[in-house]
Structure formats: C-alpha cells, structure tokens
Design goal:
By secondary structure, the protein is of the alpha+beta class. Helices cover about 35% and strands about 25% of the residues.
C-alpha cells in the first residue's frame, strides 16, 4: 500500500476515513480509517464509478466524472477520480451531521494537487 498522509483531510469537520483506490480492481492503494470497512466500501464504490464512467462514455458526452456523492442517512461518501489519472480515485467518508459538503469537495481537489500519487 502506498504511503500517503491524509492529515489535510483528517482536519475536516466530520472526517471518518479517506482512501486512494484503483478503479478497475477496487483495491485500496492507501487508506486511513477502519481497514475492513474502508476496503469493502472502496471496492463497492469502484464498481459504481466504473458504471457511471461507462454511461457517460456510451452517451457520447464530451465530459468526465468530476466527483460523485453517495448520501447515506448518517454519512456522505465522496468519490473523486484523479485529474491526472482517472483509473484512480480519492474516496472520502464524512459524518453527515458534522460535515460541510462544499468544504469537503474543495478539500479533495486541493488535496489531489498537493500530493504526488505516483
């Protein structure tokens, strides 16, 4: 697993977990949070992202998935393919009662630009 420091994201109100995930395999490349919970969530959300990317492509949209939000009753799950490599995505889980969704989306964009994912 890659060594990535998630401290910038950990400082967000409502932070629960974060990960870097391979879209094709659903494998966790780096993570911070409960390992089994995070691995299962990341693998499932990789399938969701792959499906949405295929739909966008099939419809002939000249566009891309910037990010996705899955809203649960108590959590937000944010999925953001890397701008530099759409076969990898950042995954952020937030406590819905404490999270600022706009700040979380901004922080994911900022986080991606500040970290070398190679």
């Amino acid at each position: 697993m890659a060594k990535i420091e998630f401290s910038e994201l950990q400082n967000l109100d409502g932070y629960v977990a974060a990960a870097l995930v391979d879209v094709e395999s659903g494998m966790l490349m780096a993570g911070d949070g409960s390992a089994i919970y995070l691995e299962l969530s990341a693998a499932g959300d990789a399938n969701v992202l792959k499906t949405k990317m295929k739909v966008v492509d099939s419809l002939g949209f000249e566009d891309f998935v910037e990010d996705m939000l899955i809203t649960l009753s108590k959590q937000y799950h944010l999925i953001r393919p890397l701008e530099t490599n759409s076969s990898i995505f950042l995954y952020l889980i937030m406590d819905k009662a404490k999270a600022n969704l706009a700040m979380a989306r901004y922080s994911l964009r900022s986080f991606e630009k500040s970290v070398d994912f190679s």
